[in-house]
Each structure stands twice: as C-alpha cells, then as structure tokens.
Write a structure and sequence with these properties.
75% helix
C-alpha cells in the first residue's frame, strides 16, 4: 500500500504540469508583431526535437499542451522584454533593475517542462547560437588550449549568453558576445598566446582543408 501511495504522489507533479497550459500574453499587442514572435519561438521549439512533438503524439492533449506551453513561455519572454524596454529607457538603473528582477523567470518556467540541456538549447536559440559557434571557433583557432583555459572561455560565453538574453534586439545580443570575446582575447594574450599568429595559422588550415 505504501509503495502504491509513493508512486501516486511521485506522479502528481507530472500530472499537474500536463493539466496546466501557459497562456500567450498577446492581448492588446500588434497582430503582426505577435505572429512574428510566435513564428520565431516555434522555430526554437522545433529545434528541440521533443518526443512529444512528433506526429504520433500530436493527438495526445497532454503533449499538445506541453509543446504549446513551452512555445508560449518563450513568446511571453520576448513580450516581457519589449514591455520593459518600452517602459524604461535602455541603460538606466530602473531598466537594469527590472531586467534583473525578471531575468530568472524564463529558466524557472521552462524547468517545469524541459531538462537543463534543453533549456540551454532554448537559450542558444534565443541568442543566435553564438555560444556554441564562438566556443568552437576559439578551439579551432587555438588547438593548444588547456582544459582550464577551455573551461574559462566557456564560462565567459555562458555569462555573455545570460546578458544577451536580456538584450532588446539582435544587435544588442551580438554586442554581449563580442564584448566577452574581447575579454577572452585579452586574457589569452596575457597568458602568452599570439592571437594574430594563431588566427593566421587557423585561416591557413581552413584553406588547406578546403583544397583537400
């Protein structure tokens, strides 16, 4: 009996999540803007390749609600950022305070439906995949990086991604990755790496690879 009760209560959170549906905060917003945000968010969800999103599961209400809720969480995050930047002037203490106040809500909301790895994928989708792209480019350019150095590069890219998630537009998102790339380059130069030489050799390796 105790075992049955434990199984029942362990299943409760999943059932509760399935029974809920995150609503789209689209009331009073421009229809074309909402449509654009929905399309952008849906592409991110599609990129997750969720099992519950496959054709054979589309008829299950629970799966439909889960996929829709994830999409709406992402949409609502874009709406929220837009509201903040419309209310507060960019770069002011009031704006920064409001951004920080709501910064962790995206991850918290997604955690009810996705794994940490999948949440990372959502963040990558919302920041143009710069983290993975920049990290791999750094490893390709300097193949002699130590494990410690690789970890530090990744840590800074993760920081850049968190700031980029709060940026108002694509320009602002790219700005944070470019800023942290500058920090990384300065740090690597201080550790004795000749970045111009490393870059030239990297370009040469790419040319040779294309020839072959």
């Amino acid at each position: 009996m105790k075992k049955i009760l434990l199984i029942f209560f362990a299943a409760l959170p999943f059932c509760q999540i399935c029974a809920q549906e995150v609503k789209l905060d689209s009331a009073g917003r421009d229809a074309k803007y909402v449509e654009n945000i929905i399309s952008r968010s849906q592409k991110i969800v599609d990129g997750l390749n969720l099992k519950c999103a496959k054709a054979e599961n589309q008829t299950k209400p629970c799966c439909q609600r889960k996929v829709l809720s994830i999409r709406n969480i992402i949409c609502n995050r874009y709406f929220q950022l837009n509201d903040i930047y419309e209310k507060f002037k960019k770069g002011t203490p009031e704006c920064d305070a409001e951004l920080y106040k709501h910064h962790f809500e995206l991850q918290s909301a997604l955690a009810a439906y996705l794994t940490d790895e999948q949440i990372d994928a959502v963040k990558d989708g919302m920041t143009f995949g710069r983290l993975k792209r920049d990290y791999q480019a750094t490893l390709d350019m300097i193949p002699t990086l130590t494990e410690e150095e690789k970890l530090q590069v990744l840590i800074w890219l993760r920081e850049a991604r968190e700031f980029a998630l709060d940026a108002p537009d694509s320009k602002g998102k790219h700005f944070w990755f470019d800023k942290y790339r500058g920090r990384t380059n300065n740090w690597l130069s201080a550790r004795g790496y000749d970045l111009q030489k490393e870059r030239d050799q990297w370009i040469q390796r790419q040319k040779e690879k294309q020839k072959n």
